[in-house]
Each structure stands twice: as structure tokens, then as C-alpha cells.
């Protein structure tokens, strides 16, 4: 999906980002399993994946920051 088609985040939504790199020695299936594990146990979702000329996968994960609001 191109950047032009992305919707801007809703007002008040904050994201936490995590950058992960995988060398070319990891197969596609192994990378998928590792990312699924992080998504299921950490609440992360995939933001973007870049594959470099050397075969390195650079992945950016994100999750919402939920701030507790004190009630009166």
C-alpha cells in the first residue's frame, strides 16, 4: 500500500514502534513465525517491511500506547 493511500491516525492515538532486522539466512517461513509470535504475545502489528539489496529484512512493528486516565 502506498503512503498516499494510508489514513492518518485518529486524534489522540499514539504508537510505539520497534525495529527488527533479520539476516538473509532466515527463511521466509522462519521470519513469519517469529513475527506472528511477537504479534500474538506482545500486541504488535506489522507497519512496514523493507528488503535490502543484500537480502536483509528490516521490519517495523507498531502497537498502540494505551494511557490510563485517572477518574475523579
UniProtKB/TrEMBL annotation:
Pfam families: DUF5703
InterPro entries in alphabetical order: DUF5703
Protein name per UniProt: DUF4177 domain-containing protein
Species this chain originates from: Nocardioides soli
